[in-house]
Specification:
341 residues; alpha/beta; seven-stranded parallel sheet; 12% strand; disordered N terminus; disordered C terminus; binds nicotinamide-adenine-dinucleotide
């Protein structure tokens, strides 16, 4: 199939739309996943969404149904994508709920941050982050590929990150577990392009690489790893947080404990509220990309800047001053104060 033909059917209704199709969205309880569910349903696409928080994905399903045209079905399912048995159960549930023997679109969107340092963070947290961000995508591909093939015109959409291009968040901010998983997601998706062309031409794959998108991923990540919120930190945890913020140049000397707690809360909320791209805007970019037949979907100007920079100066990828020397943004300090987990 030529690229032009792929683009025509990419949506993947006969007219390139999502109408009348069935989509799977993982991590549908918040952020970009929630907005994907809402926008797909509003465009006439039935959706089976999952999240490991049954309550939030049920809310998403209700919101999406409220704006959906008649005939659209939206279901919410509890599923931890890092557990293959749960993904299999999710598949069985959704096929029954939607009375279908195939799915047309799969958005492998669920993800968390955490375990920034391989050196100092716990092994358990590192492996938990990697399991959600890599094995979650892998299990969904394993479980849903046969159903995408059965669709006759399927699209697998895997969410990576700019950290699938650039394994850092700038000076002083390692991001090892997340970057390792997101590079794996990008590599897997790119490797599937040729495999699908040869062995399953009725399916195509797209990889999504967002920059900073305004969501609750920092709060959700903290909760996923069982870390207390700013108000519930122990004295030791508060001292650690103080040292981290000071090391990053975000906190002066002699700041009161309460102010440290407030600063931490502002960082989490600021990540959501001061982002250059909202979750709804990001979902629209992702759906436009899928509709256009793109295989790589960059979300946000910061993602485009980083993509261009690492391609233009591969040897300077981790020499930040040199990497961004002739580009206005993103400045490392901005990434530092509002970066991904
Ligand atoms: N927000 C950003 O700046 C940004 C940037 C680049 C990439 N991403 C990626 O985009 C995707 C969506 O992130 P978001 O920012 O919308 O975050 P979010 O926290 O708002 O939403 C993610 C959802 O996934 C769910 N989830 C997490 N682990 C799960 C699991 N094991 N099983 C099922 N559900 C699970 C969470 O409960 C949450 O509802 C993630 O893969 C993230 O890594 C986000």
């Amino acid at each position: 199939m030529s690229d032009g033909k792929r683009a025509e059917t990419a949506g993947n209704g006969a007219d390139g739309s999502f109408s009348g199709k069935l989509a799977v969205v993982t991590g549908g309880g918040s952020g970009m996943g929630r907005e994907l569910v809402r926008q797909l349903a509003a465009q006439g696409c039935s959706v089976a969404a999952c999240d490991w928080h049954a309550g939030t994905v049920a809310q998403t399903a209700a919101m999406a149904l409220a704006d959906a045209p008649p005939g659209v079905r939206v279901t919410g399912h509890a599923c931890d994508v890092s557990d293959e048995a749960q993904v299999l159960r999710f598949r069985d549930e959704l096929l029954q709920a939607h009375g279908s023997d195939h799915v047309d679109l799969v958005f492998s969107n669920a993800g968390i941050g955490g375990a920034a340092s391989f050196v100092t963070d716990s092994r358990a947290e590192w492996e938990r982050t990697f399991a959600v961000d890599w094995w979650g995508v892998y299990y969904c591909a394993r479980v849903f590929l046969p159903l995408l093939i059965a669709s006759g015109n399927g699209v697998l959409v895997n969410t990576s990150s700019v950290n699938g291009l650039w394994a850092s968040l700038g000076p002083g901010v390692p991001n090892t577990a997340y970057s390792t998983a997101k590079f794996a997601v990008r590599g897997f998706s790119e490797a599937l392009i040729e495999d699908l062309r040869v062995n399953a031409p009725q399916v195509r794959v797209a990889v999504v690489m967002p920059g900073h998108v305004g969501t609750d991923i920092l709060v959700n990540t903290r909760r996923a790893h069982g870390h207390p919120g700013p108000q519930d930190l122990s004295d030791t945890q508060l001292a650690d947080a103080r040292a981290r913020l000071t090391g990053l140049g975000l906190l002066g000397a002699g700041v009161a404990d309460d102010e440290v707690r407030q600063r931490l809360a502002r960082l989490e909320n600021g990540f959501r509220d001061n982002a250059p791209v909202s979750a709804a805007q990001a979902a629209a970019v992702i759906l436009d990309g899928v509709r256009s037949g793109a295989w790589r979907i960059l979300v946000g100007e910061d993602a485009k800047v980083i993509d261009e920079a690492v391609r233009a100066k591969p040897d300077a990828t981790y020499d930040y001053a040199e990497l961004f020397s002739d580009m206005p943004q993103p400045q490392p300090q901005e990434r530092r104060s509002s970066s991904e987990p």
